[in-house]
Design goal:
2 domains, Rossmann fold, 8 helices, alpha/beta, five-stranded parallel β-sheet, Arc Repressor Mutant, subunit A, binds calcium ion, four-stranded antiparallel β-sheet, elongated
């Protein structure tokens, strides 16, 4: 497998070099851009697997760059992590609203950054497969981000959709709550294991209306499993 390419868009040399060094040590290939202009050149040159964008850039703001990357149909699938010195909750929301996939407040440790990058890449990798997966009448359309049963769309919240998408693309395997947290929330420390049970309950309730809740099975003492076999 080839190395993942990360584009770093950051004007402060010390931070840019620290990030580049940490990424290279973790086996990533790195391109550096000092501003939005250079970032666009780098994007046109070779498509990265992920972009790190600093909020405060000398030309266009990181926020505006993020929006423009997410608006362009050639680049909108590219995962973005925003880097910022701002720690305000409102700024975080604005950052994520702009289309960023995650958000990291300075100062952060290289280890934390690498963990976030892996989590975002994992999530976007699963979403980029564009598969149709079917179990009996239950059908997952990853491109359309829809679950249908016999052609009828099952209304699901975003988390329930993500959960079912994960289950359907990893069938017949038992996942612990801890593993599900890691795969679905990317190791976000603020989500409790109990949250998994709440979402599984909601997911089952939605599936019940279509008579297909049997696929989502509880494995006592272990966790959950999506299975097409009757338990
Ligand atoms: Ca900056």
């Amino acid at each position: 497998m080839s190395e993942k390419l990360i584009l770093i868009v950051e004007d402060e040399p010390a931070i840019r070099q620290m990030i580049a060094f940490a990424l290279q040590r973790s086996g990533f290939e790195v391109r550096e851009a000092l501003d939005a202009h250079q970032a666009r050149e780098a994007l046109a040159n070779r498509r990265p697997d992920l972009i790190l964008i600093d909020w405060m850039l000398p030309d266009t703001s990181g926020l505006e760059l993020t929006r423009s990357v997410k608006r362009d149909r050639h680049t909108r699938e590219l995962p973005i992590i925003m880097l910022t010195a701002r720690a305000e909750e409102a700024d975080k929301v604005t950052g994520l609203d702009s289309g960023a996939d995650d958000y990291l407040t300075k100062p952060f440790s290289p280890r934390e950054l690498i963990a976030r990058i892996h989590a975002v890449l994992r999530r976007s990798g699963a979403a980029a497969l564009d598969h149709i997966v079917e179990f009996d009448a239950l059908k997952l359309d990853q491109q359309g981000q829809r679950i249908t049963v016999g052609g009828q769309t099952v209304p699901l919240g975003p988390t329930e959709y993500r959960m079912l998408e994960f289950f359907m693309t990893h069938p017949e395997r038992v996942f612990s709550r801890d593993q599900l947290l890691d795969r679905l929330w990317g190791g976000n420390v603020y989500v409790e294991e109990r949250t998994i049970d709440v979402h599984v309950r909601r997911l089952r309730k939605s599936l019940e209306k279509f008579g297909v809740e049997r696929f989502v099975q509880t494995v006592r003492g272990s966790g959950y499993r999506f299975s097409a076999k009757v338990d």
